[in-house]
């Protein structure tokens, strides 16, 4: 657990730099859906520690992957995840923290490749715990799971599905990562912004969507060379500000004849 002086220094830095919200990620070894008794016990204890630390440092969000359902039916694993979450949060150790369920690529036995799975977890957890729960969407994971977020029609369809299943207002954070894997590859390999299969134009479209404009975008891109992290931030800023201009709609003058948009080429 961080000391009081460290926590105070972090809060001062956040105020000075206007860092809001603060989202932290749980240890990747945690698997609350596991049926292995030893892994399950350690995961519950570790998750409780993550909740306590998040509360102590004033983090608004704690991001977690739903885990793996290997060796059991998916529905059973979702129930196991919720029960583990409930046990870890018993005694309301983090009343100010919202747990964010992150979508996954859906590879192997990982829960969360389908948005319905995240919604099932949240709905079931609402009956078992007072812990606040919402969502985090990762762009790389979406593409790898089969969601076309690159083209305009595909992005619209994806966001419509997210709104209908999750409620777009419940998506609190976007993990902005380009993808080394192709659409539907189930490959969880992050790339620098503009260097993967989402590409600069894909991110330009994502950043232009009105329903996402006010949400925090957090990078989890590789740092292969010094300054890569700053370059990725600057790339997102540039794409966010450099939005394509829409052509103004022309209105017909009173009394003028309308012209069909269809033209013939001879």
Overview of the structural elements:
This protein starts with a helix and ends in a 25-residue tail after the last helix. The longest helix has 21 residues, at 37-57. Helix 4 links the parallel strand 3 and strand 4. The protein has 266 residues and is α/β, with parallel strands linked by helices. It is globular and about 50 Å long. The protein contains 8 helices and 8 strands; from the N terminus they run αβαβαβαβααβββαβα. It has helices at 4-17, 37-57, 74-88, 115-128, 139-144, 152-165, 199-208, 228-241; strands at 23-25, 61-64, 98-102, 132-138, 171-176, 178-179, 190-191, 217-219. Helix 2 crosses helix 3, helix 3 (74-88) packs across helix 4 and helix 7 packs across helix 8. The strands form 2 sheets. It has a 6-stranded parallel beta sheet. Strands 6-7 form a two-stranded antiparallel sheet. It has one domain: Divalent-metal-dependent TIM barrel enzymes (TIM Barrel, Alpha-Beta Barrel), CATH 3.20.20.150. Helices cover 41% and strands 12% of the residues.
Distinctive features:
266 residues; alpha/beta; 8 strands; globular; disordered C terminus; 12% strand; six-stranded parallel beta sheet; two-stranded antiparallel ribbon; single chain; TIM Barrel; 8 helices
